[in-house]
Amino acid sequence: MELPDFDTLKRLAATEPHLLETLLYEQIEAVIETANPDQQRRLRGLQFQVDCQRRLAKNPIDSCLRIVNMMQDSFFLMRSEMSRLCYFSEEDELPPLPPRDNVVSLQDHRHK
């Protein structure tokens, strides 16, 4: 399925957001369907988590930040596991994790 051009997507977002949501879920489903059956269940579970974060968000920016935080958490968990495996298999150490102090939490920001 081919996406509409940018101007059409922008118009849908402004005037018919429910149609844009429908298009989004059609695209997501098309991508999940291309995965092998073993991965489809995991992808649907991940999409469920993303959808939950979108519903909990107070606005689109909050939604985006929640999803970014999910991705960062997943990345840091994967990196931690890889580091642990390398520790047991090699002498070399990975560079330290970057500090997360450059990430602004919406919750902290709202209370200022």
Automatic annotation (TrEMBL):
Domain of life of the organism in this record? Bacteria
Record InterPro entries:
DUF3135
* Name of protein: DUF3135 domain-containing protein
